[in-house]
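Take a look at the protein record below with the fold in mind.
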Amino acid sequence: MGHLAFIGSHRVNGVSALHTRLMRETVFAELHRLYPERIVNKTNGITFRRWLHQANPGLTRLLVAACGSEVLDDTVALPRLAEFVDDSETVRRLAAVKRANKTALSRFVHEQTGLPLDPDALFDVHIKRIHEYKRQLLNLLDTVARYHAIRADPGGDWVPRVKIFAGKAAAGYVQAKLIVKLANDIAAVVNTDPATRDLLRLVFLPNYNVSLAEMIIPAADLSEQISTAGMEASGTGNMKLALNGALTIGTLDGANIEIREHVGAENIFIFGLTAEEVEARRQRGLDAGDAIAASSELAEAIAAIGDGAFSPDDPSRFRHIADGLRYVDPYMIAADFAAYRRAQAEVEALWRRPAAWGRAAALNIGFMGWFSADRTISEYAGDIWHVPLKYS
């Protein structure tokens, strides 16, 4: 079907630079040689009217004050915020808007689940479709490793963190639904352990939809964009979260690459194998024994999951997940674990410096204007359909 669609199409669009390159080099390599002008790149965008103006009125008011009222209609005005990133009052006001949004989300979570959250903790958000390549499992392994570390040293100087998950799993996708169950079972242990519950919370919010996303995204401090490199076409959640002042931890996948180019490598936490390195590792084989042997944290986390530490009512419930990580790791979860943990340590080091974190958040907001859907639509109109519309 893909090849038929290619032949019958005027243009074939890649929705991020990496996606476009992979289509040219792999998926449609032969057809690209025959029709070298047909595949084009138009990176996805998002509608600021929904994901900023409607979802985050407090931030919108601040941006109008800093950048002028034209920012409401013209994202070219948004980079003016960069002029204020070293102004302590602007950074303080941004932090106050973020905390108000976190307080509102905390209230909602408590009403829905009964779980109290500390709005002064780092809100670590992973919201997207539940799929193995999006690697919610990698985040859960980090959660288990963090839980073990806190239990081993409960008096340590820990950064309090709230892990927030949400997303839907396809009805017939058994492994995805098992990962959802694992998240909830880990939460049941972590959130009730008196040694850890004030330092680490995990919540999986049910019934994920746009309205819920509009509450979570403005409250996020950290945006999890950790898909296996080469597998995410673009992503738009990464754009929505960065626009609302969350810093991204992610792989060089999809539009994460363009986000890094716009916000600066020092204002994003990139880790893990590249798309080329993922493919090379696949060619060598998928056994993750080397990665597990190199990390006692990873070995202990996998063992705890596989041996029933989080499912005492059914100790074998997650054995399939543990064995998959050990022997067949197609999504490079074990392979990227150590790099992910190092990136998370970098996150916490920056979080301990509120002014530096606020500066990075402001730069993320200010340089996200290019990711407006208005720009994407204008490029489609002008470059592909040749209609008289220009994005300014």
About this structure: The domain at 94-368 is CATH 3.40.50.2000 (Rossmann fold).
